[in-house]
Amino acid sequence: MATDRSDAAVSMDRQQYFDAWAALHGGYDPRRNRLALAWMSVAHACARPLVAARFTPNAVTLLGLIVGCLAIWPAWIGGRAALWVPVVVIIAALLDNLDGAVAVMTSRTSRWGFVLDSTCDRITDAAFLAVLWLLGAPAWACAVGALLTLLVEYARARSAAAGMAEIGVVTVWERPMRVAVVFWFVLGAGLYPSSSTSWVSAAACGAVALGAVAFGQILTVARRRLSQEQAEN
User: Fold this and answer.
1) What is the predicted pLDDT for the residue at 5?
2) Which residues lie below 8 Å from residue 18, measured CB to CB, with a gap of 6+?
3) Which of 54, 79, 91, 121 is the most buried if burial means most Cβ atoms within 10 Å?
4) Domain boundaries, the chain
5) What is the tens place of the pLDDT at every residue in 159-215?
6) 46-50, 52-56, 85-89 — which one is most confidently predicted on average?
């Protein structure tokens, strides 16, 4: 029976995967957005061998956490070793998407998996900002950036708990943007060691600015939607 279930999961085509994903995310269809479509197509293709190898969603989540934290090592070494950071970051980001893909394809989504995934995401967010600090970014900017990132996700979670539909609340500081900022600016720092401090400082300050805007966006949307829902009830 387990074999049949695994075979069915591996044979799930891309359109079936999109339909199953949409059903679990408030009906939002990723095919409406080209970037989301491309990213999720990659996730579907990469998840199939993991499903065939019988990886569980939680195992993929923990693997992504380990890989994300490994970015600290080349950052600590510094210099040209920093060029390994973007590689590690992009692999961790892919794994972060694959755990959900594996869960959808194997019908193994769970509340605990959601909590574990969110917790691991916050740890890797902090690890990425620690990378910027190790490469020379101001400690205050990294600390404030980490705090604002946590506040954005905390406000999102509390708003969802209060009854607001989480899907569709997209800010300027979502996880793909966090990954992109670290990826590109650390790549610049690795390619141009003489100005590496400027590159990572700009990334940390960008995290502060974008985090502050995102926090304001979350609070504004939450206030409006929750007020509307309360008035309707």
Assistant:
1) 53
2) 29, 30, 31, 40
3) 121
4) 2-232
5) 988 888 655 578 999 998 999 999 999 999 999 999 999 999 999 999 999 999 999
6) 85-89
8 Å CB contact between 50 and 58: no
Q: Please provide the size of the chain in residues.
A: 233
> 137-160: buried (b, 16+ CB within 10 Å) or exposed (e) per residue?
bbeebbbbbbebbebbbebbeebe
Residue 211 CA: distances (Å) to CA of 21, 119, 126? 28, 18, 13
- What single-letter amino acid sits at 189? A
Angle at 192 between CA 189 and CA 195, to 5 degrees: 75
With beta carbons less than 8 A apart as the criterion, state whether 224 and 231 touch.
no
CATH, domain range 2-232 = 1.20.120.1760
pTM for the whole structure: 0.88
What are the pLDDT digits (tens) for 2-24? 455 555 566 688 889 988 888 87
Question: Cα 113 to chain center, whole Å?
Answer: 15
